[in-house]
From TrEMBL:
Pathway: Pheromone biosynthesis. GO terms for molecular function: (2E,6E)-farnesyl diphosphate synthase activity; dimethylallyltranstransferase activity; metal ion binding. GO terms for biological process: farnesyl diphosphate biosynthetic process; pheromone biosynthetic process. It holds the Pfam family polyprenyl_synt. Keywords: Magnesium, Metal-binding, Transferase. This is Farnesyl pyrophosphate synthase. SUPFAM superfamilies: Terpenoid synthases (SSF48576). Belongs to the FPP/GGPP synthase family. The lineage of its organism: Eukaryota, Metazoa, Cnidaria, Anthozoa, Hexacorallia. InterPro entries: FPS1-like, Isoprenoid_synthase_dom_sf, Polyprenyl_synt, Polyprenyl_synt_CS. GO terms for cellular component: cytoplasm. Its cofactor is Mg(2+).
Length: 356
C-alpha cells in the first residue's frame, strides 16, 4: 500500500469545512460592503459593482486552493489545540486565495481572448462589461488587502502574510509575462522543456500550491526558511504536474466536464504537448506544426490534435503522470520531516488522475 492509498488520520471537523467555507463567502462580501470607505454615497455605484464582480467571478471553481489553507492548518495544529478564531481566519485566508485566483483568471481570459470560464461566459465577454473588466481585476485584488487589514492586523503573522500575497502576485505576473511573450521562433526553437518549466513554475505553481500551505504555516508560527524551502520544493513540483495535466486536458479533455473550451493550440501557447511533439517529429510533421499551430481555426487545431494522436502523446502523458507521481512521493518522503506528510498527500489525492 502506497502512502497515497493509506487513509488519512480521521479529522471529523474537516467534513464540515467545505460547508463552512462556502457559507463564509457571502458573509465576507457583505462584511466588505460595510467598510467605512464603502459607505460614501458618491462612490456607491462603484461599490455595488465590486459586489457584482466578486459574486460572478470568485465562486464556481473547485475551491481546492482555498480549502487547502484550513486543510493544511488542521494537519499542523492538532484538533484539540486549534481554536475557533484560527479556523475563522483560515477560512478568510482561503477565500483571499480564491479572490486572487479569480483576478488572475479574469485577467488571463482577457489576454487569451477566452470565451468560457467555469461553464459560463467570461466576465469581460459580457456585453455590459467588455474591457472595464481590467479595472475589475484590480478591484478584486485590492479587496484582499482590505480584508486582511480588517481581520488579521492584530496578529503577529500579519506582515508575513501581506508580504506573501504581494510576492506571489509579483511572481505570478512574471510567469504570465513569460507565457504571453514566448513565441515559437522560426523553427519552434523557443518551445523547449526548460522554458516551459519556468513559465509553469511562476505562472501556476507558486499561487496554486505554495501559497495556501505557506499561509497555514505562518498561522501556525512556522517561519524558518528551511521548512518553507522544503515545502516549496514539494509544492512547486506538484504545480508543474498540475499544469501538465491542464495542458493535456486542454487538448483531450471534455469541455462539458472542464467548463471551458481548450484554446492553447489556437493561442500559440508553449505547452507540454507541443514541446513533447517537437521532441518526436520528423520534417514532414514539423511542416504540419508550422502551418497549423497558432492558427485560429477549428481545422488547423484538429490537424495538430491528429498529429498528437499520431505521436501517441496520450500514452506519453500517462507515462509522465506515473513518473511524476512517484517523484512527488519521493520528495514528500525526503523533504517533509518538519511538517506532516498528510498536508502534501492530500494535495496529491486531489490532482492525481483528475479529469478537470
Amino acid at each position: 500500500m502506497s502512502d497515497l492509498d493509506r487513509p488519512a488520520k480521521c479529522m471529523k471537523p474537516m467534513e464540515n469545512d467545505v460547508e463552512r467555507f462556502d457559507k463564509a463567502f457571502p458573509e465576507l462580501v457583505n462584511d466588505l460592503m460595510k467598510e467605512s470607505d464603502f459607505q460614501d454615497l458618491k462612490i456607491r455605484e462603484a461599490v455595488i459593482r465590486v459586489k457584482e464582480v466578486l459574486e460572478y467571478n470568485v465562486p464556481g471553481g473547485k475551491r481546492n486552493r482555498g480549502l487547502s489553507v484550513i486543510g493544511s492548518l488542521r494537519h499542523i495544529i492538532s484538533e484539540d489545540k486549534i481554536t475557533e478564531e484560527q479556523i475563522n481566519i483560515a477560512m478568510l485566508l482561503g477565500w483571499c486565495v480564491e479572490w486572487f485566483q479569480a483576478f488572475f483568471l479574469m485577467a488571463d481570459d482577457i489576454m487569451d481572448q477566452s470565451l468560457m470560464r467555469r461553464g459560463k461566459t467570461c466576465w469581460y465577454k459580457k456585453p455590459e462589461v467588455g474591457y472595464k473588466a481590467i479595472n475589475d481585476c484590480i478591484m478584486i485584488e485590492q479587496t484582499v488587502f482590505i480584508l486582511l487589514k480588517k481581520h488579521i492586523r492584530h496578529q503577529s503573522y500579519y506582515i508575513d502574510i501581506v508580504e506573501l500575497f504581494h510576492e506571489i502576485a509579483y511572481l505570478t505576473s512574471l510567469g504570465q509575462s513569460l507565457d504571453l511573450t514566448t513565441t515559437p521562433g522560426k523553427n519552434f526553437e523557443n518551445f523547449t522543456l526548460d522554458r516551459y518549466k519556468v513559465i509553469v513554475k511562476y505562472k501556476t505553481a507558486f499561487y496554486s500550491f505554495y501559497l495556501p500551505v505557506a499561509l497555514a504555516m505562518y498561522m501556525a508560527g512556522i517561519t524558518d526558511k528551511e521548512t518553507h524551502e522544503n515545502a516549496k520544493a514539494i509544492l512547486l513540483e506538484m504545480g508543474e504536474f498540475f499544469q501538465v495535466q491542464d495542458d493535456f486536458l486542454d487538448a483531450f479533455g471534455d469541455p462539458i466536464v472542464m467548463g471551458k473550451v481548450g484554446t492553447d493550440i489556437e493561442e500559440n501557447k508553449c505547452t507540454w504537448l507541443v514541446v513533447k511533439a517537437l521532441e518526436r517529429i520528423n520534417s514532414q510533421q514539423m511542416d504540419i506544426i508550422k502551418e497549423n499551430y497558432g492558427i485560429n481555426s477549428v481545422q488547423a487545431s484538429s490537424k495538430i490534435k491528429d498529429l498528437y494522436h499520431t505521436l501517441n502523446l496520450k500514452q506519453v502523458f500517462h507515462e509522465y503522470e506515473e513518473q511524476s507521481y512517484q517523484r512527488i512521493l519521493d520528495l514528500i518522503s525526503k523533504k517533509s520531516s518538519q511538517l506532516p506528510k498528510a498536508i502534501f498527500l492530500e494535495f496529491v489525492k486531489k490532482i492525481y488522475k483528475r479529469n478537470k
